[in-house]
From TrEMBL:
<feature type="transmembrane region" description="Helical">
    <location>
        <begin position="65"/>
        <end position="92"/>
    </location>
</feature>
<keyword id="KW-0812">Transmembrane</keyword>
<feature type="transmembrane region" description="Helical">
    <location>
        <begin position="137"/>
        <end position="160"/>
    </location>
</feature>
<dbReference type="Pfam" id="PF07456">
    <property type="entry name" value="Hpre_diP_synt_I"/>
</dbReference>
<keyword id="KW-0472">Membrane</keyword>
<feature type="transmembrane region" description="Helical">
    <location>
        <begin position="34"/>
        <end position="53"/>
    </location>
</feature>
<dbReference type="InterPro" id="IPR014535">
    <property type="entry name" value="Hpre_diP_synt_I"/>
</dbReference>
<feature type="transmembrane region" description="Helical">
    <location>
        <begin position="104"/>
        <end position="125"/>
    </location>
</feature>
<protein>
    <submittedName>
        <fullName>Heptaprenyl diphosphate synthase</fullName>
    </submittedName>
</protein>
<keyword id="KW-1133">Transmembrane helix</keyword>
<dbReference type="InterPro" id="IPR010898">
    <property type="entry name" value="Hpre_diP_synth_I"/>
</dbReference>
Length: 175
């Protein structure tokens, strides 16, 4: 990876980590324990589109590591759930971006990522508590994933629309 690319990915990691931390401070007026808006996933989408899956992986792992250390949950259940959701949604969103893009917009890809993120977190939670009854929570999380995924996708779309110079970062590496 070029030095310029490392700086850019480092910047994305920092932004995503700050969003991850700030989001943990926001109380949601919903009766859904653990539900979050997914603000840091905007940065994961940006990384997928601008740099590809490998650098997006650095961004996702870096943000979960930094956010978990700062939040005091490093290597705890919340860390494991966050990391599994981040990695699973990253892989699915990258696949969708590379294979389904003509049929699926950035908003659709984001909704797909939100659903996968929530689903994987439930799988991990069911393993942690040794109870499959937790999957009754899936319909509610799916309903929550729809507006949050749309919001995250719209934020990413606005970012791409307004930041042409950022999108040229990767192209400028060869120059």
């Amino acid at each position: 990876m070029h030095a310029k690319s490392m700086v850019q990915v480092g910047l994305l990691i920092g932004i995503a980590a700050v969003l991850h931390i700030v989001e943990s401070w926001l109380p949601l007026p919903l009766p859904l324990p653990g539900a979050k808006l997914g603000l840091a996933n905007v940065i994961s989408l940006v990384a997928i589109v601008c740099f590809g899956w490998r650098q997006a992986l650095y961004v996702s792992v870096g943000r979960v590591l930094l956010g978990s250390v700062a939040g005091g949950v490093f290597l705890g259940p919340a860390f494991v759930m966050s990391m599994s959701g981040a990695l699973g949604s990253l892989l699915v969103m990258d696949y969708a971006w590379n294979h389904w893009r003509p049929c699926l917009s950035i908003v659709g890809i984001s909704v797909l990522g939100a659903f996968v993120h929530n689903s994987l977190q439930l799988v991990i939670a069911s393993q942690l508590v040794s109870n499959n009854g937790i999957f009754w929570y899936l319909p509610w999380l799916t309903l929550f994933a729809l507006p949050t995924g749309i919001g995250t996708g719209l934020c990413a779309a606005v970012f791409f629309e307004r930041s042409g110079s950022f999108l040229d970062w990767n192209k400028n590496l060869e120059a």
